[in-house]
Design brief:
The protein is of the alpha+beta class and 173 residues long. It has helices spanning 2-7, 34-40, 57-64, 83-89, 121-172, and strands at 13-19, 24-32, 45-47, 68-70, 93-101, 104-113. The longest helix has 52 residues, at 121-172. The protein is elongated.
């Protein structure tokens, strides 16, 4: 997804962060300028429930389950910490979208664009559909995994039952 976004969609950066069992957001996929991204996404691993991060758009997405976008990141006061790098990277717009699994936010899909006012309603709708497809696929993978585990458990129990039955039959003879 990140490769497609940067190569075909011509985003400056695209990334995916997933929440682990300790509520730490970890970057799992990234495409774009790595040096610039390291400065912009300097907290590639952080405990997103920590109050010091509550003003960060990505954290708002994780907490609310609603996307956050900004079409003029270079002039937004709450993003002043990253302004220098936004200017250097020519990034004007960004969006973070929640990734869900069974109704729970489990991660973020983020994009940074070099065009001011890039994220219009049509673009946002397309990105929401894409992240919805990812969420759906993750649910299908999880269901398939659980189904396979159940099949293996049934097979194991059938073998155990067969052994017990055969043993009991031998004891009666």
């Amino acid at each position: 997804m990140c490769t497609i976004a940067t190569e075909i969609g011509q985003f400056k950066m695209a990334w995916i962060g997933m929440i682990d069992e300790n509520d730490v957001l970890k970057m799992v996929s990234f495409r774009g300028d790595e040096e610039g991204a390291a400065k912009i996404l300097q907290m590639s691993e952080f405990h997103y429930k920590d109050p010091q991060f509550k003003h960060i758009p990505t954290v708002k997405v994780l907490q609310t389950g609603k996307y956050e976008f900004n079409n003029n990141v270079q002039e937004t006061p709450s993003l002043i910490k990253w302004r220098e790098e936004f200017v250097k990277q020519r990034i004007f717009a960004s969006i973070s979208l929640p990734i869900f699994k069974f109704g729970k936010v489990i991660g973020i899909l983020g994009f940074h664009a070099t065009i001011k006012d890039f994220f219009d309603p049509q673009e946002i709708e397309l990105l929401e559909e894409a992240v919805g497809d990812i969420s759906f696929a993750l649910e299908i993978f999880e269901k398939t995994k659980k189904h396979k585990e159940m099949e293996e458990l049934v097979e194991m129990n059938e073998k155990r039952f067969r052994k017990i039955t055969e043993k009991n039959y031998d004891m009666k003879i």
